[in-house]
């Protein structure tokens, strides 16, 4: 069904191009998506795949209190945590989908369990994506680098073109 | 996003000018990055652009010349750098810049894009990041030689540096 290929082609080509947009709940993430929607030219044969890496609530739970604190989570607790996490995820993913709809860009949601670094790289491979758009948390002037760890990892490991969108701290340099 | 010669109101007739800085050098990766960007990011006339305010793109092609350093060892320089040598090296670099920018500009002209060329001297890492700030570009496109600090990663050192330091979205196109 997908005829997308990683090579470049003319805009009139009917081949579908897939752009993966990595999303989490952060502002940086949404800023990256909005930037892509505003700046890049998405045609009728393009689609965005909004990828969110979801961690199992269990991995958070076992982190509580360290060894031997005796937290035992019953199934109901786990299920309820998963449900509440799902509600949160659906909320921001739906917001993202709405942004795409506003710009009349085809988009689908892929929520996958796992570490963001691996999930993003794997999705790109699976979908044979043409491009990755990823926000960067950046740590500003405090840390040496202005690039978050997930975007840094992806920059090193994906083979497709990628766009790293940092959220500017001051808007002054963007205005003329 | 930089807007030139007009206010930011979403009036249909307004033309927004988007500045894209594309770093080029003699490598094939560089030309590939340029042509990928032209095809996939800057291409005019996408089907769903009809209702959007017209956006024009200005492509700024930047070539960075690295002039060889004069090293003075503990025992003094092993040879004398005469003004003629400096001149000849400079001329050679200018010729390289000319060829590189000509090749790049040709690709842009084929797409009927407004293009400017620019030459900077020094370390490409800093020169590119400085140009980004000085020109207040909307985004930067850079190819990646794909060697990096560790051979198994797919990111070159200049693109890695710019991904960290450039104060605008960075598009990294890796060699095929």
Explain what this protein looks like in three dimensions.
The complex is a heterodimer of chains A (176) and B (176). Chain A is α/β, with parallel strands linked by helices and 176 residues long. Chain A is 38% helix and 19% strand. Chain A has a 5-stranded parallel beta sheet, with helices on both faces. The longest helix of chain A has 28 residues, at 75-102. The N and C termini of chain A lie far apart (45 Å). By secondary structure, chain B is an alpha/beta fold. Chain B has one domain (16-68, 80-174): HUPs (Rossmann fold), CATH 3.40.50. Chain B is 36% helix and 22% strand. Chain B has helices at residues 28-42, 83-110, 124-135, 157-165, and strands at residues 16-24, 55-65, 114-121, 139-144, 170-174. In chain B, strands 3-2-1-4-5 form a 5-stranded parallel beta sheet, with helices on both faces. In chain B, helix 1 runs parallel beside helix 2 (83-110) and helix 3 runs parallel beside helix 4. Chain B is globular and about 60 Å long. Chains A and B meet through helix 1, helix 5 and strand 5 of A and helix 1, helix 4 and strand 5 of B. Chain A: InterPro entries: Rossmann-like_a/b/a_fold, Universal_stress_UspA, UspA. Chain A: This is UspA domain-containing protein. Chain A: Residues 18-166 form the UspA domain.
